[in-house]
């Protein structure tokens, strides 16, 4: 059996003779070596920019001499050409990959020599110990197939019984492989590399399936080497792309999308667990069993049944649908979290049980009496404590079941669960049976030595179980399955179980961190959290209520169990607090460890050593400049050139004025010498001495904070340990990859000087001038100097008179005086460089090119000085082109507007070396479909007649590559155009600086590859083989931090996570890849699936998957402190929350992913905890926070109901609990209230502790003064409100995603948030997120405050206020009186429009969008050009909806329902039982019943009258009919609220509680109906318009017209209630803002809070003509009157009946009610003034000791 990679005793020289291969297609290498003219027309090397220089330069100079290289460029070119002929690769792919390979070889050869460069590159791609192909080759057992044949081998890698072959051990086979790889000729190695790269270069989306690519490469390689070159070889039937790549692409595409009858691509209505994604496809190729599933369509033979050399021929005939299957089910369930983080839950729940059960002895004490305070028996207590072990086993049972559910048993990599199940069953029996015997088969007060011995044994076993299952990874329980058999689970070991182990300090730090965290946590939680509930548990568990009358149907069943319900709520709340507490301690200790690290490396401002600036020149010379004796110039001269370049670059960016430049640069001064001679000396700037350390005591940088910050950071980082840089010639090449979607390329003049829209009150340019006043002045002065140079006839522009200043006014207004294209472009660029544009990003990162040129000039000074200046510049430019490339991948290039195309051309003219990758769409007449091409252009490309540039490369793709969420596909398609050994991933809103780019060589040293001179195929593989460094993270400076409170808060979050947390996480192995500005090992990442993952929705946070993938496959991830990039962040409330929603939803998807499963079940405990709390734990923590708030308020409401109707005992903590309670018959509820108060105080502390990381980070790097200032400004700007709201957004996004799967890519606007958002937009966006939930909490808290006021309830009022007011508080100009009332008109229009014709923004559209989250949307076709309300939404699983959306709501409803029943249970009265349930049913279901009848009565109007009227004289009649119907529904709901109030005898507190319960019941009913009975929503709104217009026949619904009226009827019933709620809620929210609106100067105060601009710098409102201003003012006044009238009418309708009852007596309504309603009235009972807390004060001191003594005597 032949295979090119046959490992035992392979010798490849026979078929790798490059000369014979060359002869096949007419190339004669012998003659070509002497005369290359025959290949001139076959030039593969990339020219472009290289061809623009005056002199000729070889693009690969280290590979120029044939005598010094192992294989000449000509031979390499021949190999590429022949591979093209054999496999029909595309010519552009051939040229692109030739350049790709040569750039890699040139980069490596520059520092390690050509021979080692080729060998090491081959080792990294194909044969080295860390090569992914090698791992796959042995993992899939193809080495055995090549040597022995699968027919002779069993699946576990051993020889079959009657096989004549002996299977070599894995170590022996790998040693032979290494010997063979080491013996490969350079020609063979080049063929391997070229073939792999060509397959990769044309694989488009299949690049994300790395092991599939390995399989394809091996098939190609076997086929290539099997060719008999002496005979003619038939040309393949189809090109490589169509032969194998397109079928695979088409299979995946069909999994995600379907094609309708119009040929439109629509997403499939299925979730991840039914989609065969990239990972499922990839894992087929891991195992031999998977490969044996690959069968042909015609013969049904497996691909492995063919000899290796014949497999490639049959690849096009494979039936992939039969081969692929799900290898992991990403089911939308929380079971993933139970499985993945099983050990986290085990630790917390078990310890919580131990703590709580030990301190709750009354629950298992027989006949407990507080006067005796009798304790349980030792055996009972130990048995109860031992239940912790049972809980641990129970959690593991769930985890085992979950793994069986998620990992299909037919996947070869699935671990056998039978051993785990059996051992768990044995442990469960041993653990549970004795506990059951002790607690349930014996009396609790029975004491026996035998029982005691059993209980002791059980307790010890329980502790052992907790320790074992908490420490040992779930995947390694009872022995790791990966260690079973040498080859059985080798793929899982290589691809999911190769996480690098921590060693030395890193391991010690990781373990030490978590020891500190849990030691602190367990001590604090026991004494503060657990002991605090001891008294509450004792009182509630022994409290007996025997005096309540109860309810008609249930009697006193629930009433008597109110203490038990409170106890359950108390334990639930305490458990969540116990879980939250760990995250608190993690923040504290992570911050402390990070500070210690910063001190140790000297990055802190508080470091004990000084002289950061005075030693800066020496540090620049030693750490930045690599002299190596290559130049005879003094170090001072070299440093001066570099330092002056940095200062001048800041001047060119207008950060410094010319005066500042003169003070900061080295200058040549003439010093008089002897005998009338003089000499020039280099004078060092006094800056280095005057700026001792970085205290900056002088006023040098006054007004130039950005320059100060950059120079300070540069000086500070050079004082820290930095890896040594290598010479510029030896520097590895690298690329910067920038994915671009729709971000601004550059700003147009119109965008700069014109208001954004009618809601904006200032222009962008004016705002930028206020933010950067000094930079604007520098820009103007520079422009004036330029104008003076152009027009030298004018006098100096330094003017002093008023007239002269007026002449200069245009400069200071728009930046120019003469509107020439050049001056306009300067202003546009100035503004673009101060906003988040692509131009800023490209300009910033092109500093890499400038830095390389500068370093080349400095380090080759002697050579440069001896040459002419032009050649010197050319050589520096050539060096920059060799070492650096920037690729911008423009996803929407073909959809660019003319303005965007002009901006793109501006970029290319400014930076001709910039590479722009884009997708080209072209209709193919032959194929009858669109064809897609990956193209690349730069500034050297020819401009065609249509204005477009001719691409350098144009590679046809299998189809549209954007089949995911966009960014990952955009990155993936551009990867083939990157060059070099490393890639830096950048977003299109970042920036970089020259001084930081100078340190890029130092960061490359972090990859630990630069000084490698060892043979990569050394035989001793087990020694000195560290895991390769895959990713290096860098710091980010958020340049939008000073734009206002929101920008500063967003910047603070990035700062703490990207720097402070990353510093510690990188050390302890918890850091992953977060996209930017990380450096990636190009070979490592591209051979393992790319730089991100791209399955739609699942990989929404695409970058982090690349980090997890790298970690699982053995890559290390590091973090550098000495290099930073600029980063822009979202600045507006809406855009920040869009980003937050994306991250929260993406986390929901991550928790479903297989990467979380692999990491969660295999990481050691310390690594798991770091991974969990740095990622999923943060989001779950946000969810737990709001769960805690809900539980607290629900608990408080139920407690308030009990306190309100109870006689509360006097209490003092120093009085023994055995004392009699006073007064008699009282309930000691004070201890429960005190527990509530203590917990609220702890929550407040936790909230403020969350600010610690930012504060500490500021203190360590900027000093305590700036830290206090920054934090004070944030707090004064109500940032706490914003933090609360963001926390809610995180929680809501995660929950919604886990229940409905609503994750989608959200494009976040990164512009300045200076535009006022309409109220309707804010309400529709945030009502379902926070406003509706806040309203329920408001009613519960109102009831609690009325019934049981405590000061700590202010915290909950604060939280609810934050949830309600935040969207409006952070809306620019929200409280400007005129804008406020003009906006009210839009709000009313939003509420009522959209019923006659389609409206883009309307209340009905908002309701339909919310409903579609439950029902999904139909995939039916829509009319061409029709307006669409909804996107494609999948219908969520019914089970998920019932468990999450309905189940949680039902639980909340039942808790509130119980509180309401108890409030009406009439404790201590002799009244009759009341029918509370019927009252609640009438008030909850009555409005719905009335709406049902109302809609039936009005339906004839819409069916008969509406079509006639709307078609003839009154087109808006349907809207009027809808408005009337909804207003009647509003009145209907107000009526029933008044009925409820009346039934409660006008008692406000209980009425509020009843109304809250009624709202919850209605909402629960609507959710049930929507989830279970409503079909999917149409994407258009024709059904709604047809309902009101009656035009069903002409609605275009087809046969759906038969079913849709019934569905729409149910929808309209629900909408009636929803409209009433929204209408009232909208007016309440507006009313709450009225006091703020009427506050004098509120708009200026509000702008100061948002933008941090003092009133003197705030811009005045937009000026309108007097007529327009008067009209707006009049409209605002009329609308204010209308608002007050509508509001007054609502208030009158709500409180009018109450006023009437006061005037005419309470019986005026009751006497006139029908008899059937009499039973619904709450009986009027005697009000005991001693009930509740109103007449009760909690005693904190005993001033009269006689009282104490008297009580003791009574005892």
TrEMBL record:
Class of the enzyme per the UniProt entry, highest EC level: transferase
EC numbers for this chain: 2.4.1.34
GO CC term (a single one): plasma membrane
Superkingdom per UniProt: Eukaryota
Protein localization: Membrane
Protein's UniProt keywords contain Transmembrane helix: yes
Any GO MF annotation of the entry: 1,3-beta-D-glucan synthase activity
Membrane topology classification: Multi-pass membrane protein
Main location: membrane
One GO term of the biological process aspect: fungal-type cell wall polysaccharide biosynthetic process
Chain segments annotated as transmembrane: 341-358, 378-400, 421-444, 450-478, 564-580, 586-609, 1183-1203, 1229-1255, 1275-1291, 1326-1345, 1352-1370, 1438-1461, 1482-1508, 1520-1541, 1548-1569, 1624-1653, 1674-1700
Domain 1,3-beta-glucan synthase component FKS1-like positions: 187-299
Catalytic activity field: [(1->3)-beta-D-glucosyl](n) + UDP-alpha-D-glucose = [(1->3)-beta-D-glucosyl](n+1) + UDP + H(+)
Keywords, ordered alphabetically: Glycosyltransferase, Membrane, Transferase, Transmembrane, Transmembrane helix
A matching Pfam family: Glucan_synthase
Alphabetical list of PANTHER family matching this protein: 1,3-BETA-GLUCAN SYNTHASE (PTHR12741:SF97), LYST-INTERACTING PROTEIN LIP5 DOPAMINE RESPONSIVE PROTEIN DRG-1 (PTHR12741)
Family: Belongs to the glycosyltransferase 48 family.
Name of the molecule in the record: 1,3-beta-glucan synthase
Source organism of this protein record: Komagataella phaffii (strain GS115 / ATCC 20864) (Yeast)
Lineage of the species this protein comes from: Eukaryota, Fungi, Dikarya, Ascomycota, Saccharomycotina
